[in-house]
Write a structure and sequence with these properties.
By secondary structure, this protein is an all-beta fold. It has one domain (about 30-120): Sandwich (Jelly Rolls). The protein contains no helices and ten strands. It has strands spanning about 1-10, 20-30, 35-40, 45-50, 55-65, 70-75, 85, 90-95, 105, 115-120. The strands form three sheets. The protein has a four-stranded antiparallel beta sheet, with no helix packed on it. It has a four-stranded antiparallel beta sheet with strand order 4-9-6-7, with no helix packed on it. The radius of gyration is 16 Å and the shape is globular.
């Protein structure tokens, strides 16, 4: 069994009402495979993680583009599903995935690169 420690720190001294100082840390138990890949996306929606290939997992995604217009939309389910998140240039996310539905990308424009790491939580 491998473990991955995820740590998020949010700080700001000039938020509108109060200063912000928040740190959250969690240890993720990885009992199965770890997949890492980079994908050159396009404006044609495509599945990048098939639900049938995984059990419960943690997913890390990063838009590696530096061009502001190259936004990557993430969908759950079919390629024509609604967007559940959008990653601008340089933005990232990590989230738990039950692998009940496929994960899909669709770039707003261009061919931004999507970095993907999937840590399978169960064997």
């Amino acid at each position: 069994m491998a473990t991955v420690t995820a740590k998020l720190t949010l700080t700001s001294s000039n938020t509108p009402s109060d200063s912000l100082n928040l740190t959250v840390t969690d240890t993720l138990s990885v009992l199965g495979q770890i997949n890492r890949k980079t994908i050159v996306t396009s404006a044609t929606a495509a599945v990048f993680a098939t639900a049938s290939g995984y059990t419960d997992a943690y997913v890390f995604l990063k838009n590696k583009s530096t061009t502001a217009a190259e936004i990557i939309h993430i969908r759950v389910g079919a390629t024509d599903s609604a967007d559940v998140m959008s990653l601008g240039a340089g933005e990232f996310t990590i989230f738990p995935w039950s692998s009940d539905e496929d994960l899909v990308y669709d770039a707003a424009t261009g061919t931004p690169v999507l970095e993907v790491m999937i840590f399978q939580a169960a064997a």
